[in-house]
Amino acid sequence: MNFSYTSVQDAVYFCYESINNSCYKETRPIVSIATRAPMYILLLVTVAVTVCGNLLVIISISHFKQLHTPTNYLTLSLAVVDFLLGGFIMPPSMIRTIETCWYFGELFCKIHTSTDVMLSTASILHLSFISVDRYYAVCHPLNYQTKITVFVTLNMILVSWILSAMVGFGMIFLGLNIKGIEDFYYKNLNCVGSCTLIQSEASSMVSSLLSFYIPGLVMIGIYVKIFKVAKRQARSIRDLSEQRATATDNKNMASSKRERKAAKTLATVMGVFLVCWLPFFVCNIIDPILAFSTPPSLVDALVWFGYLNSTFNPLVYGFFYSWFRKALKIIAYGKIFQNNSSRTRLFIE
What we know:
By secondary structure, the chain is mainly alpha-helical.
């Protein structure tokens, strides 16, 4: 390990010994020689679970024709977001967290940070559109198929990706994140071997509102409305079941129950997202006000807690969706390669 001594007792480590403007290599108590290997194993397992879990969601929805619905197209695109975060964002972040230095260059740092912001923004935009989809499915079932078509869903997906890319890459590559604090940033925070998102008070407030708080509050409002309607529907179904119901009534009741269950499952996905990312976005607003005094180890911990949202989503699907569990069995046993496997009925419509 490269180092230079400031005294006989103390040693100062640098990310790049041969570069004058090198960052100091932090010495964190939790990242010692004894704990480095276990941390790598733990984070590698997290990366593997994230990538494999979301890949299974992507394969399931893409392969089985019964799953080709507007809601599942949004879920598929959300799984792609989580897959990219697990495969592209998490591995370099893992090395940065454990080694406390960035060894992949300034350009890749900008690309990595921009993509990170883009994917986290895309996640909540997807969830916002999913809440709109569930609102029409539960609250206006008669208009659902005319309002939420495949064309409308694809436009939702495009808007989510395009707006997220504009926020992520526009903010970083145009330097909007440090606008107003350029002198402070280049004098105190800019050094070779660092790759941390630094934002001014205005930038952190605007980006947090657009990427998290406003969409989050909108989603909460929509799901509160959904559950009120769902509760009223459940009461009507219970009253109808006590009477003599026709075959059409039974089919409508089954469809209504399925839509409400889907709404509850996707609300759980939304709740997991809000819980995982809320601590980071609170810190993101407070840190500039505190002159960026938040310990880097705490920031890293909050970022990884947010990343875990992409790990949890496939687990939520597996817990709530019987069709996903059935799809996993078909994939695990290799039956997905059989003729007409894509037409397998995963649930009764």
